[in-house]
Design brief:
The complex is a heterodimer of chains A (about 425) and B (about 150).
Chain A (H helix, E strand, L loop, with lengths): L2 H19 L4 H19 L4 H7 L2 H17 L4 H13 L3 H18 L2 H19 L4 H15 L7 H10 L3 H7 L1 H18 L1 H5 L6 H4 L3 H4 L3 H20 L7 H16 L3 H7 L2 H19 L2 H12 L4 H18 L2 H17 L5 H14 L8 H10 L8 H29 L1
Helix pairs in contact in A: 1-2, 1-18, 2-18, 3-18, 4-9, 4-16, 4-17, 5-6, 5-7, 6-7, 6-8, 7-8, 7-23, 8-11, 8-23, 9-21, 9-22, 11-24, 15-16, 18-21, 19-21, 20-21, 20-22, 20-24, 21-22, 22-24
Chain B lengths: L13 E2 L4 H11 L3 E5 L5 E6 H6 L28 H4 L13 E2 L4 H11 L3 E5 L5 E6 H10 L6
Parallel strand pairs in B: 1-2, 4-5
Antiparallel strand pairs in B: 2-3, 5-6
Classes of the chains: A mainly alpha (about 425), B alpha/beta (about 150).
Chain lengths: ~425, ~150
């Protein structure tokens, strides 16, 4: 390894370590890391400001920004609370039924919208429903996080790693529906059955009061029904456009931004309020990571890594893919899956340039990054959010509890994904 | 006008060794909204209000749901009592710091202090720091207003 490769690797790994330590806000670390990377690149002539700008994937940023604006507009309408209340009424207060319904709603929403927003909005209503029933909210909260992590892997827009992978590999929305959705559907069902088993004791406890749930009024949760309807129409149209975006030769990011622009024109909300809800720190984090990884690439780090990997590449490609699932999953369980995905993308691209068939590896990366997040209390943002929320209640979610209920789900989802990966990609 | 002429003198207080359960029964028996917590020397070391006790009974969700209009029935919450373990804790775990005034404090000054600290009742202490009474907003407010009749 030459000096630029060594220096850039140190900058990147030190930034990752700081992000992992959670001592400093991750976006602040990323900005500092990106600036140091460009600075070092200029001094040692391996990276330039122009190259750094080119390393930023604006397709990913545009798609995230567009979807964030749409969600920011949908959030205050009360639509999420509305769905949760409908689920509560449909369950008639029966715990198992409520568990499946709330888990399914959270999953479906997080397949098309940001997981984090979905969980942030569904979890408080979940606490309300379980308190008026007189049962513990813990099983429902844990399941919502785990099932939304799992379901989000199914679509291009369901999960930030998918957006990154789709953009880097040129995969369309439909590619995800064909390759990822079927495997995720099986995996999700497996996760649900396992969760029902793991929480059997809690869910078999009869609620003390089921009538109060039927008195919840869904109509009263919708404080802006007109706005909700408009945004849902725009979101529905966006989904149709996602289906045909490659036929129309437009990018998913164009679909998202066009939908956001249209919704803003139609609803004309207070734009300052919308902008406040957009997660700028996430967008900045992504941008800074792109710049850092661009530096690694310019310094030739990935070429030398690919050289190392080629030596192991005589393992059959299917087993190579399975190891990618597990390596990425284990890393994603302890570190944020976004930097892991951003770092793995150039490695896979490098393997492709050296002649390997990398099409299946993209899916391995998506499964590992998505399902790995189930493993620990800090594995995904959804986990962190339900935990933080539960810490403000009388029954907080603890790390040992997560290890007992979340870790098995991670192991099962990765196992099912691996088996299906082997079956599907060794026969084609 | 000094506060010692307008405060309640037969003040109910609880010793610092009381449990939450004991405090609750003192509230019920005396029908008051605030209890000074005193040490062995009758010096107030804190106060505990109905509000602090009732927080134990309130559900968690009211902190997360801004608009409760759609919840027409609190269901199981209405019949959920705090666990015995919590009721047997010392009042010190719920106690708030005691903001007191001395008995020679002026009425308007006392009222201003209550406004600033957002209190409805305030313990009054003697020179040596012992609890001698409780001043309520209503007592102080009406005492101040009663002087207006004499304004020519």
């Amino acid at each position: 390894m030459n000096i630029p490769a060594g220096i850039s690797s140190v900058v990147f790994l030190a930034s990752l370590a700081l992000i992992f330590s959670e001592k400093i806000n991750r976006s602040i670390v990323a900005i500092a890391g990106a600036v140091i990377m460009v600075g070092m690149g200029k001094i040692l002539h391996f990276y330039s400001e122009k190259a750094a700008l080119e390393a930023v994937d604006f397709n990913t940023l545009g798609l995230l920004l567009g979807m964030m604006i749409l969600v920011a507009m949908l959030e205050p309408t009360g639509f999420f609370e509305y769905l949760a209340v409908l689920a509560a009424r449909a369950s008639k207060g029966k715990p198992v039924r409520l568990f499946i319904l709330l888990g399914s709603i959270t999953t479906v929403l997080s397949m098309f919208l940001d997981n984090v927003t979905t969980v942030v909005l569904i979890a408080p209503v979940t606490i309300l429903i379980s308190e008026i029933l007189g049962v513990s909210a813990l099983p429902y909260l844990v399941a919502e996080a785990l099932l939304s992590n799992t379901g989000g892997v199914a679509t291009l827009v369901g999960d930030p790693p998918n957006v990154l992978i789709g953009s880097a590999a040129g995969l369309s929305f439909n590619d995800f529906l064909v390759h990822s959705l079927p495997i995720v559907a099986f995996t999700w069902a497996g996760a649900l059955v396992l969760l029902l088993h793991l929480f059997k004791k809690e869910l078999s406890k009869q609620p003390r009061n089921t009538e109060a749930v039927m008195k919840l009024d869904p109509a009263e949760t919708l404080n802006q029904p007109g706005t909700a309807r408009r945004i849902l129409i725009v979101l529905g149209t966006a989904m149709i456009l996602f289906f045909v975006h490659d036929l129309l030769d437009i990018s998913p990011s164009f679909v998202a931004l066009e939908s956001a622009a249209f919704a803003l024109l139609w609803v004309r909300p207070n734009f300052q309020d919308v902008l406040k809800k957009v997660e700028w720190s996430v967008l900045i984090f992504f941008t800074a990571l792109f710049v850092m990884v661009g530096g690694l690439e310019s310094a030739g780090v990935f070429e030398s890594m690919v050289g190392l990997l080629e030596r192991v590449a005589h393992v059959p490609p299917v087993w190579f893919g399975v190891s990618v699932i597990w390596i990425v999953a284990l890393l994603s369980a302890v570190v944020d899956n976004v930097p892991i995905t951003i770092a793995f993308i150039p490695v896979i691209q490098g393997l492709g340039e050296s002649g390997m068939d990398i099409a299946p590896l993209w899916w391995a990366l998506a499964f590992g990054a998505g399902f790995g997040g189930n493993g620990t209390i800090i594995g995904s943002t959804a986990n962190i959010i339900v935990t933080a929320l539960s810490e403000k209640t009388r029954t907080p979610i603890t790390a040992p509890l997560w290890n007992k209920r979340g870790l098995p789900v991670m192991l099962l989802t990765c196992t099912i994904a691996s088996i299906m990966y082997i079956i599907l990609y060794s026969t084609f | 006008m000094e506060i010692n002429k307008y405060m309640k003198r037969n003040v109910v207080s609880i010793p610092e060794t009381s449990t939450i359960r004991e405090a609750a029964s003192v509230f019920v028996k005396n029908h008051v909204g605030l209890l000074p917590v005193v040490d062995n020397n009758a010096k107030p070391i804190g106060v505990i209000g109905l509000r602090e006790l009732l927080t134990l009974e309130l559900p968690d969700f009211i902190r997360f749901i801004g608009d409760l209009d759609f919840v027409h029935d609190f269901g199981a919450v209405e019949t959920t009592r705090p666990p015995a373990k919590v009721l047997d804790q010392s009042v010190k775990s719920l106690m708030k710091p005691a903001f007191t005034v001395s008995e020679d404090s002026g009425l308007l000054r006392t009222y201003a202090l209550m406004l600033q600290h957002n209190l409805h009742d305030m313990p009054v202490v003697s020179k040596d720091g012992k609890l001698v009474g409780v001043a309520s907003r209503v007592d102080i407010g009406t005492a101040i207003l009663s002087t207006w009749a004499k304004v020519a």
